[in-house]
Amino acid sequence: EAEIYLKLLPKGERDRSQQDMMPVIRRDLAGIAGATVSVLESGGFGGTTKPLQIYVFGDQIDELKRVSQQVLAVVRETPGAIEADSKMAEERPELRIDLRRELASDIGLGVGSLASTLRPALAGQKATSWEDPSGEQHDVIVRLPRSARVSEAQLAALPIASGYDPATGAPQIVRLGHVASFAATESPQQIDRRNMKRVALVEANFAGKALTEVSAGIEAGVKKIQFPTGYGVDLSGETEMFRETVGYILESMVLAIVFIYLVLASQFGSFQQPLAIMLSVPLSMVGVLLMLLATNTTFNLMSMIGLILLMGLVTKNAILLIDFANQGRERGLSRREALIDAGQIRLRPIVMTTLAMIFGMLPLALAIGAGAEFRAPLARAVIGGLITSTLLTLVVVPVVYTLLDDLGGKLRGHLTRGEREHAARLREKAQE
């Protein structure tokens, strides 16, 4: 297995992106006879790995191999999944040596002594080290020449020391073929363990569909497999990292909403006005989804980070509007007049700040520069959210503010009705 790293020219010196070139490279290299080609994006510190990783866990090697083949077939049939393979599917031939234990025990030969004899003969063993004239140390490995270990008959003729002759004290020699049997088999190239369980790794790449779509298709196909007791699958790779990150982002969004509400409630001295202000957050979601749809951008991690950024940006417009309306009501204006004045007077700063943020995000949204495709969804989500939130905030927030103010007045009236009735009875008794 060999890896070839291809470094692209700077973005300004080529007319095709990395995503455009990957299918072309797959097509051109697919005709190499006897080769399995996978085209991957360059990884980070962990190396280059396929994004879709499915761990099949179980105890028995043969059963684990069978189950992993079923999972591999599901992955290959899933739309969008490409270049799927399994580490257990690529087996290598091996010669298994089984010791005839009863016979070996009669002549005093154990498994340990057999292994200590075969290891230096076949795998090699360090005997000493040698220093060259330049002073560099080299290990001296003792090992049978390749020509003496290429056939089963040569291995069967290997001499094994099985003890000492009590009469002469000379070592007793027995041929390996007399005390062991040979069997040609195949074994997986790699057997891993994960969470204290033996696992087989099934890997795949994806193209033409989003990672979440391909992962969902694989999960749906895997659920149809009848796994034996003690066997199952775990999705890892980028799927696992994406789900963990989404969970953290959702927790951050919930905490951000709670803290924004608490801060606004303390600043405005009201529990209902922050609700009208925070209505601009869901209003921004309309623009986020429309912008991502218009630019053919997936709703990914960077888009979600853009949502967290939007929470602070879009509430700013509603805060300017509601705060100025409250000041007008304190000056004696009616609620309607205060809202109209707030909309007219605060329109200019709202539009100016919104345009400043939009134009500031525009170069990032256009994906200009190397690696900008990764960050572009953040800017596109922010721009779309700012546009719709600004337009809808000027209309929806005053309406909701009015409705909540009426609702609050009714609730206050209902809660203070008993006090007013008690005060009226006291006045009647005083007049009598």
Structural class: alpha+beta
- Global morphology: elongated
Element string (H = helix, E = strand): HEHEEHHEEHEEHEEEHEHHHHHHH
Strand fraction band?
Answer: 15-25%
Query: Which parts are unreliable, with pLDDT below 50 for 5 consecutive residues or more?
Result: none
Helix content: 55-70%
Write the SSE topology.
Layout: H1 18-29, E1 52-58, H2 61-77, E2 81-86, E3 91-99, H3 101-106, H4 111-123, E4 125-131, E5 137-142, H5 152-156, E6 159-164, E7 171-175, H6 176-179, E8 180-188, E9 192-194, E10 197-206, H7 211-222, E11 232-237, H8 238-268, H9 273-278, H10 280-294, H11 301-330, H12 335-345, H13 347-365, H14 372-431
Helix pairs in contact: 8-11, 10-11, 10-14, 11-12, 11-14, 13-14
Account of the protein in words:
The chain is of the alpha+beta class and 432 residues long. Helix content is 56%, strand content 17%. The chain is built from 14 helices and eleven strands. Strands 1, 2, 9, 10 and 11 form a five-stranded antiparallel beta sheet that branches. A two-stranded antiparallel sheet has the order 3-8. Strands 4-5 form a two-stranded antiparallel sheet. A hairpin with a 6-residue loop joins strand 6 (159-164) and strand 7 (171-175). The model has no long low-confidence stretch (mean pLDDT 82).
